[in-house]
Amino acid sequence: MESGVCAQCGQPLPRQRRAFRWGMLALAFLAGLALSAGVMPLLPIAHRSQASAPAPSATVRPALNASPTPTIPPVPEGTLLLEYRGHTDHVTSLAWSPDGKRIASASKDATVQVWDAATGGHVLTYTGHSTWVWTVAWSPDGRMIASGSQGGTVQVWDAVSGALLYTYRGHTSWVYALAWSPDSKRIASGSQDGTVQVWDATTGANVVTYRGHRDIVESVAWSPDGTRIASASDDHTVQVWNATTGQPLLTYRGHTDDVYTVAWSPDGTRIASGGDDTTVQVWDAISGQIILTYRGHTNWVEALAWSPDGRLLASASTDHTVQVWDAADGSHAFIYRGHSDWVYTVAWSPDGTRLASGSWDNTVQVWQA
Q1: What is the 3-state secondary structure (H, E, C) of 241-299?
Q2: Considering the entire predicted model, what is its pTM?
Q3: Which CATH superfamily is domain 51-61+73-368 in?
Q4: Where in the chain is the domain with CATH 2.130.10.10?
Q5: Three-state DSSP state, 131
Q6: Predicted confidence (pLDDT) per residue in 40-68, tens digit
Q7: Helix residue ranges, H only, the chain
Q8: Over the stretch 79-121, which tens digit does the pLDDT of each residue have?
């Protein structure tokens, strides 16, 4: 991996994303110069006031005509059900509420927006962050939402009212990844500072800081039983470790480049990981033994999601597609091509009937699984 150092935080940057991140830093620098000179920079600025901001819009799939028979034909896989257009910049992360009724979407417009998963109706806009929001996660008990930003903070807030409950400031650089423990008591956060920090979601008390990676931590996932954490990094590894003590348990080295995403199977026996080498690799969560390698994408794999029954995997890529495939043998189910730009995030509905995908085309699309 080619070397390089971030002028903002002193951290090494990944090869493939380096030009993009240098560009972001340059924009921030130029904006600062303009402001110091008393000139308003010509940069897109997201509205911060809910009262003055235009209401987010959504395009809903028309209802099926009433059938003269009691049987309604099933909706074909990949059929677009809803397109949410509330964001003014790239969508970076999304999360379903545990009851499947709402979706929270994070964006570079510095907001997290919560909306109705069936109608696209706007519920609330969280404006607590002042910089790009990279990651959002809904607590398993449904009461709280956590969001992490370029500013290095994680904010925990009420999922109904949007009231801020706690701000965690343990990281020294951008927060790219968040995951709740299954009991909703702890949060694991991964950062450009190279650490994963596990902390109490209510008080912010640090449980453990994991320092096993040598580069940016891009993704984190809890095991279903809450005892282990898997973390993916630009150091080309996925590392599995004890969620309480930080003791390393396994290092997976199957990828040849930066690893951007990691996801644990619902039964806890398998882990899937994807990244810059364009592959998705499924491997045994205990031994690290490779089970299969999926090679359907033509560009970076940014996000992965297991179906609730563990039979299928959905993989989102900068090749503008989401691909759904059999997690046992890698055979195709279908390819979703609804987005016009990078697909950065994907998540299954809790009942397994729908998928939501977020893109750098500024939309979230909900479609039939």
Answers
A1: EECCCCCEEEEECCCCCCEEEEEECCCCCEEEEEECCCCEEEEECCCCCEEEEECCCCC
A2: 0.82
A3: YVTN repeat-like/Quinoprotein amine dehydrogenase (2.130.10.10)
A4: 51-61+73-368
A5: coil
A6: 333 332 332 233 333 444 444 443 444 44
A7: 18-36
A8: 999 999 999 999 999 999 999 999 999 999 999 999 999 999 9
